From TrEMBL:
TM ranges: 114-133, 145-166, 178-197, 203-225, 237-257, 269-287, 344-366, 378-398, 433-452, 458-479, 500-517, 523-544
Protein name: Benomyl/methotrexate resistance protein
Entry-linked CDD domains: MFS_Tpo1_MDR_like
Domain of life per record: Eukaryota
Residues covered by the Major facilitator superfamily (MFS) profile domain: 112-549
Gene3D superfamilies: MFS general substrate transporter like domains
Subcellular location: Membrane
Cellular-component GO terms for this entry: plasma membrane
Topology of this chain in the membrane: Multi-pass membrane protein
Amino acid sequence: MRSSRSSWLREAHYRAQSTAPSPNNGWVSTTAAPTDPTSSYVGPEKGRTQPMSSRSPGQERDQNSASVSKETTSSPPPPTPASTPTVAALDWDGPDDPLNPHNWSEVRKWYQTYTTSGLALVGTFASSAFTPGMDLAAEEFGSPLLVGTLAFSIYQLGLAAGGPFAAPMSETFGRRPVYFISMPLFGLFILGTGFAPNMAALVVLRFFAGLFAAPSLSMGSGTLADIWPPEKRAAPMSLYVATPFLGPALGPLLGAAVTRDLGWRWTSWLILFFTIVLVVLPVPFYIESYKPVLLRRRAKKRGLPVPKSPLESLPWHKVISTYATTTLNRPLHMLFTEPIVTAFNAYSAFNFALLYAFFAAFPWVFQEEYGFDSLSTGLTFLGLGAGVIIGTIGIYFFSTYYYRPKVRHSIANDEPAPKAATSRVAPEARLPLAFVGGPCITIGLFLFGWSAAYRVHWIVPTIAEAFFGLGNLSVFMGCTMYITDTYGPLYGASAMASNAILRYVLGATFPLFAVQMFRNLGTQWACTLLGCLSVLGACVPWVLMRFGKGLRERSGYKRGD
């Protein structure tokens, strides 16, 4: 026992020396293991060296047995607090470690992916399904329509408030506990909205429903980065990113169907049905995927000295203070200090806010210009859904025929992994998605505004919605994968949490003035104004293509695994 413990301590010391210090002085090293297994062993000799942890257990036992006499005579002293291994010293047992989520079976990986995507679908479906009923709720409670719109928008503010809590907590305690606690609470608050006695209660309940739905949206990209290596990440990530856009497209249609015949309160029961099918049933079988949590559990089972995290060693009031001042500060700090995060988050948040502005404006446009009822207006959102589906297919082909060949070429030529990145090829290889998506958004805005204003056949503005959905998904996909490849699972989750803050704050704000803007400016000029702003945003991916490498190398959050 003493021999094996000494061997483990020497190996831990070797790993700790070879691990670069992490920014922000976090308790988990961000460089303990590269995300991409194809680039995990880049070294000076022929580009590859084998880590000590890749030796088989049998080899270690043989070497320990051979050196037992030497160690019994000159063994090191018992570990002191200064020499106790840190979490940074823990790593997988070689590249084929079955505990590593990258080595899970394809069935398990896709189950986790589908469950994560289902959580995101429910979170956004709940935001838009209430749209057809907001004017009816305002009428029932004797409130102005603007207050009814507030009941719709407040859900987005809940998503914005919950995002900063979700990602850091998942990085401390793991993904599964956060999902397991937050989503049932989300269902309870949605249940409450169906029994709301007045508008104030409805607004408060929808805010808390959004608060507890936030983990399903802010943790998803980090969860998939845990499971899939970068060169295989595009297909599952495209599914995950598509579902938050399909949810808003399905919400107005299904919400209008139940509202017309059963009343606005049935939108709550509709959301609960989706929650039971996509959340309550699959989540109990959800498996933890976050690397530091998995390695700490293994170390405890093996009886190895694993230090407590700072949060575990603090009293509860200090834990709250730590979250408020340090842990929760990371997403906001990245939003305002990381140019990559700031630029991409601002662009994707603007596009997302346009999406939610249209949920308020589309009913007015189609009912005023075309005389549609609520159900017919809901059907027009299928154009948005069609664009999202086309975008998902396009992203798959982009991954298969553009990105993966780049990865294979890099491996075949033994090219070194890019600096300040967690992928085998530079993150700029993801940007063509945004190059295509930006113009599609602009085309969709101009086409919708001018065709609807002159009452061209309704199929034309519906096609414009498809362009908008395609562009919005493509831009967001490019942004998400660029950020994930740059910052990895650890800081990537926090970067996407900051993305959620900005997206949902703007998404809550835009619907409050969207209808007034369309009424006062006219449909064509309102869309022209938004289209011109989208042209400015479309420049962001091109700027990062030119200056992204330098910005990554100067980042304070380099390579978070």
